[in-house]
Amino acid sequence: xxxxxxxxxxxxxxxxxxxxxxxxxxxxxxxxxxxxxxxxxxxxxxxxxxxxxxxxxxxxxxxxxxxxxxxxxxxxxxxxxxxxxxxxxxxxxxxxxxxxxxxxxxxxxxxxxxxxxxxxxxxxxxxxxxxxxxxxxxxxxxxxxxxxxxxxxxxxxxxxxxxxxxxxxxxxxxxxxxxxxxxxxxxxxxxxxxxxxxxxxxxxxxxxxxxxxxxxxxxxxxxxxxxxxxxxxxxxxxxxxxxxxxxxxxxxxxxxxxxxxxxxxxxxxxxxxxxxxxxxxxxxxxxxxxxxxxxxxxxxxxxxxxxxxxxxxxxxxxxxxxxxxxxxxxxxxxxxxxxxxxxxxxxxxxxxxxxxxxxxxxxxxxxxxxxxxxxxxxxxxxxxxxxxxxxxxxxxxxxxxxxxxxxxxxxxxxxxxxxxxxxxxxxxxxxxxxxxxxxxxxxxxxxxxxxxxxxxxxxxxxxxxxxxxxxxxxxxxx
Length: 478
What we know:
Blueprint: E1 2-8, H1 12-21, E2 28-31, E3 48-49, H2 60-79, E4 83-84, E5 88-92, H3 95-111, E6 116-120, H4 121-127, E7 137-141, E8 145-147, H5 149-162, E9 166-168, E10 173-179, E11 182-187, E12 190-199, H6 205-210, E13 219-229, E14 240-243, E15 253-256, E16 262-265, E17 269-270, H7 281-294, E18 303-314, E19 320-323, E20 330-334, H8 340-358, H9 384-393, E21 400-402, E22 407-408, H10 409-417, H11 425-432, H12 445-456
Parallel strand pairs: 1-2, 1-12, 2-9, 5-14, 12-20
Antiparallel strand pairs: 3-8, 4-8, 5-7, 6-7, 10-11, 11-12, 13-16, 13-17, 13-18, 14-15, 15-16, 19-20, 21-22
Helix pairs in contact: 1-5, 1-8, 2-8, 10-12
């Protein structure tokens, strides 16, 4: 089959772009090298919707961050994804850092960020009583927020697939050539032919662009390790807490999540291997020491899990979103590091504009295009009467599988059977939070495996944790 568009990369950028372009009467293939979407940087970041004061004025980062932050609340509303506009604070501990706050404020004004103010120690402690009394003040950005990065990604993918996008998993691109006016992409699943290509391959976007003869940028991977704290610590801060940034990034943050936990991190480690997200416990200890400077009561003992993600840092220090100089039908969306998540709705619009400018035909919008998805059941958020009514209609919602997060059999069944549904344990985890709690799948994992086996029609020993060879059971022993 000849596709009109092939989108390489199933992270938040690829999926949000697929959602946007699925409004057209075009055939679109979304290619992801792993066993599920949202398995790279999109599952391993802080979930911060940055206000937009950090990026250099005039950069694409600054423009798309500010626009994306404005768009995010409505996008999340359309996709039934939790979003919270809780604001952020950049803490200063010296007069020199107070001057840095003024620089950030001035840059934010130039970037068009509304709702900023520099506050003193007293006001800061009134807003956040658990902040260190050694703080001198803070930059308060009221438009910042938080979102679940992997739920946003999976929701966008569900919307895109629901509108006709064909999702190919385990479909990494190994080669690309332009032949007879068509791109031929050599993948793990054979050749895929497409008239246009959108390269949203994350840390590998430079490698993919080089396949057609023009390396769009040089990507230097940076590893970031995070720790997730128990919900019992969820009220330690109510806003995103930053410290003054350094040349390597925004530094260590302490932030609530939309699901009631607290996230601490990240490290910033320049690495050579783009697929190496191994966690360093030594580096995590340093993260907590840094975090305790701002929030002294934060403790590593409250950690329920830790994880790492690799960011696609471009040497140009800006997003690269443009048609390839080699072939304008090949659109690079590369070097998308922080604030990529916050920028993602605006990036999708920007790519849409570029695509429309290079497309050689007449674009028709589907009359039945749906920018949403079916609203997922979230049993834990329902009132008692709503829960009773739901169980009467379908008893599967009355069987609690994950007790830490109150996730039911009905929710797990649903997340497997929706468009772009879960195919493994981690896929269920990202879509429902089953296994996200204090026991980290210790009690519910086996039950989730049984449901996956039943719904996918596969033997239970074929169920994996995250695809590939990550089997949990191998053979019956008794």
